[in-house]
Amino acid sequence: MESANGIQITDIKITKAKKEPGSHLVAHARIVLNGSFCVNSLRIVEGKFGPFISFPREYAKDKGYNVCYPITKSLQDYLTEVILTKWVSEKTLVERRT
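^ that's the sequence the OP posted. Answer follows.
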């Protein structure tokens, strides 16, 4: 996938998460959009129906809300596809080395 609505991931970094008992978090991601805007603290989560991307959240008075997130379905699909493809390729490389 090339881009969505003119928005393109120009850099991506995936960091494996520390395995915690009962946690479904598998990695963190940092992306740069159009070489101009950085989004930290994206989470790759292993869900009931497969992996998905969770966007940064803030918590206030026991209530959480997303700090940033895609508004359109096309951008959501683009970000998910690119980030998960990168995660799978890096995970596969690590598994081959061991």
